[in-house]
Design a protein that fits this description.
With about 325 residues, the protein is α+β, with helices and mostly antiparallel strands. It has helices spanning about 5, 15-25, 35-40, 55-65, 115-120, 145-150, 160-165, 170-180, 185-195, 205-215, 220-230, 230-235, 255-265, 270-280, 285, 300-315, 320-325; strands at about 30-35, 50-55, 70, 80-85, 90-95, 95-100, 110, 130-135, 135-140, 150-155, 185, 290, 295. A seven-stranded mixed sheet has the order 3-4-5-2-1-8-9. The protein has a two-stranded antiparallel ribbon with strand order 6-7.
Amino acid sequence: MTDRAVAEFFDLPSIAEELGARFEKAGHELYLVGGTVRDALRGASPKDLDFATDARPNAVVRILQGWADHRYLTGIRFGTVGARKDELQLEITTFREEVYSEDSRHPHVAFAKEIETDLSRRDFTINAMALRLPDKEFIDPFRGLYDLGHKVLRTPLEPEISFGDDPLRMLRAARFVSTLEVVPEPNVLDATRGMKERLSIVSPERIQEEFSKLLLGEQVEQALRVVVETGLAEVFLPELPALRLEQDPVHRHKDVLQHTLAVVARVPPDLVLRLAALLHDVGKPKTREITEEGVQFHHHEVVGARMAEERLRALRYPERIVQEVR
């Protein structure tokens, strides 16, 4: 399929082409990028539009002047200018590379000059596609369309490079397992196992947001297995892998972790319900006793409620959610 044929799949709001024409008139390039492109190729209508450009942020602000209903500059130091036009939210980011230092929770942003460089530093190939505007030229240097069609999760460069740029991407891989039903390549999982401790430099707020999206996906059980089996859970949710204990060592009933994952998958995709399902047995490891009557977990629900509250607070969940889950 030619790039032009792929472009015909895109049913874009007229706003996107209008904005592309404004950037072209100003002598700059503009591309639709990231999840907006991915979801459009999956047949989903975009709620928000993400763009990349060679224009520096100050130039973007000038181009939006008189066209956008509102402009938002909170992300400008990271190269992003937000805007609202009619009912659509827009984000326009200067081509960039971003790399976390060994001990910093904030990325150092360096601007790039070409769309291919920008795409190479994105998290996964399925998010490394772009559509040039206004002429709708499809850009796919890392075969993201192929991977999307075959439900493969792969990084544009080596996964160690991608995860070094932003360690949250290791958790995002699991989120895409849940929400897009993709299968990570073995080297993605291997890199996660080797780099899991790097997740500790990411802020709890960012981890919480990513994990919440994971919990609401259709394939949440498979995604949580990835989080446990790669060791990521040990970094931000150690109560989960601690559930690998048999409920009844005599009759070999399935362990508490398997039971928990099955429960999470069977409750509706509501954040409070799924968090409660995930944490409902976290008190069992601390209360487990083997008696003449079998395995006992006296007051595990009381201990578990306290543990759940502590973990959700550590992940900066809103107080309302903390109390409802408790």
